[in-house]
């Protein structure tokens, strides 16, 4: 059972992070689910639709729809699986890579401007240290 102090910090952090995430999402031009698929392909390389569904923890039918939308926008391409003729792989197209980088840039750009405009030098140092702590919490099993 967490201490009352830890529980209060957790509640405040969850609220603040939720607000920040929603604000950063305002910079999005591509729907979040589609950006997540593009990001997974960028990180992992070519994947099957079922592997993408597992990676994103969604039903294969939902992923098939997302893949179809991304293909219609020419953000991903499909090619034959090299070892299993029944499967195909999807991967980022050049346009998909460009769109993903632009999306990441918009998000990071807004946040960087907000950090610069709102925080003192001391607060920026504290935030940088906090980012490492948040990463550690996020990767806790």
Summarize the structure.
The chain is mainly alpha-helical.
Instruction: Tell me the overall shape.
Output: globular
Radius of gyration, in Å, reads 19 Å
Number of strands: 2
Element string (H = helix, E = strand): HHHHEEHH
Q: How would a textbook summarize the main sheet?
A: 2 strands, antiparallel
Helix content: over 70%
Contiguous runs where pLDDT drops below 50 for at least 5 residues: none
Strand line-up of the largest beta sheet: 1-2
Beta-sheet strand percentage? Answer: 5-15%
The end-to-end distance, rounded to whole angstroms, is: 17 Å
Question: Given the structure, what is the number of helices?
Answer: 6
Derived structural class: mainly alpha
Mean pLDDT across the residues is: 94
Describe this structure in words.
70% of the residues lie in helices and 7% in strands. The chain has 141 residues and is mainly alpha-helical. It has a two-stranded antiparallel ribbon. The mean pLDDT is 94.
Map the helices and strands.
Blueprint lengths: L3 H22 L6 H13 L4 H8 L3 H13 L3 E5 L7 E5 L1 H25 L2 H18 L3
Antiparallel strand pairs: 1-2
Helix pairs in contact: 2-5, 3-4
């Amino acid at each position: 059972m967490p201490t009352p102090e830890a529980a209060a910090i957790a509640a405040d952090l969850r609220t603040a992070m939720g607000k920040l995430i929603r604000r950063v999402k305002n910079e999005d031009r591509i729907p979040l689910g589609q950006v997540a698929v593009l990001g997974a392909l960028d990180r992992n390389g070519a994947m099957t639709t079922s592997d993408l569904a597992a990676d994103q923890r969604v039903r294969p039918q939902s992923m098939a729809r997302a893949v179809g939308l991304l293909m219609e926008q020419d953000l991903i391409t499909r090619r034959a699986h090299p070892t299993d003729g029944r499967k195909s792989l999807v991967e980022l197209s050049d346009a998909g890579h460009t769109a993903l980088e632009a999306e990441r840039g918009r998000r990071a750009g807004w946040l960087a401007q907000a950090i610069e405009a709102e925080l003192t030098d001391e607060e920026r140092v504290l935030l940088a240290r906090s980012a490492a702590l948040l990463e550690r919490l996020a990767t806790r099993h």
